[in-house]
Amino acid sequence: MLQRRKAARRKTRASAAKRATRTERAGVAARERAGWGVRGVKPLGVSMRIIATVLYWLAAVTIALGAFGHGFLGIKPVEAAVAASTLPADIVGVIWIVWYFVSGTMVVCGAILFWAWPAIKTGSTTRSGAVFIIGVFYTATGIACYLYSGREPFWLLFLFQGVIVIGTTLALRNMGNQR
């Protein structure tokens, strides 16, 4: 009977408890890293990766295709306003130069987002700097134009595109580091 008590006492000691293996400890550490260092946080799943991917591509495509809306559709009311004005010809020329430069900039921003995709989807940070610059540029443009225009809701599109680009890039980068 005395031996049973000693055996029971030995089993309850911390030194007698089973230690986690190196593989088990590595798994716990990886799960904590995936939760951005917060213990107990579960990593984002496959569905979050799909949502982030779809949103990233939605923003990239709308930024690139926005150039065509800007250059072919948005120009119609501007042409009418310029024709009705008495602006000198050189000023009108500058308006068209800037107008089409902005269209070209939208195409380039979209192309950079397409170029950065292979790195972003794997969680690499090698091309995320360019993506963050575009996201910040679109966010700042959206806010500034919204306020300057007297709260015209159209400009919120730029704000949302910028926020989506920044948010999805951060999410995909962090998800890629979980592997």
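(the above was protein one; protein two follows)
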Amino acid sequence: MTETPGARVASTIARDASRPTHDAALVALRCAAAAVFVAHGAGDLFDAGISANVDNYTGAGIPLPALSAPFAALVQFFGGLALIVGLLTRPVAAGLTVVMGGALIWVHRGESLVMGQDGSGSGYAFAMGAIALTILLLGPGRFSADHVLASWLRQRSSAPVPRTGSVQA
């Protein structure tokens, strides 16, 4: 039985990506997100400085500014670096999701998704939060340090354990 043109189009549209394509897409997503998060985290750590961010967080009414400002800066910078190689991907993505959620709730609440002339707008935090959540849900993929580490740990745990303390007759 031959496939109809409509069925062929539907099959092409609905077909899932191959596993290597899926993993490559996760690398691209991780690296794109990492570039943005590292740039923002570096600005918070090295340009403005943590103390300036604590003051900004205090002024914005963000809870626990002495903890949340350094947390956000460190998670964005070092977490972004970890995303590049796919190391601790899910914990990092969880932290980034929290940071972007906090930005949406305390900094950008009520702002338009479109960035205004004054730099206001929630689009950046919304998009980066959605990307971080996607990475959290999908994981790092096979092209990641997490995958290599997990494979190594699985092999190591399934290797026979040498018996110690046995007396040879």
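Reviewer note on protein two: The chain has one domain: 20-146.
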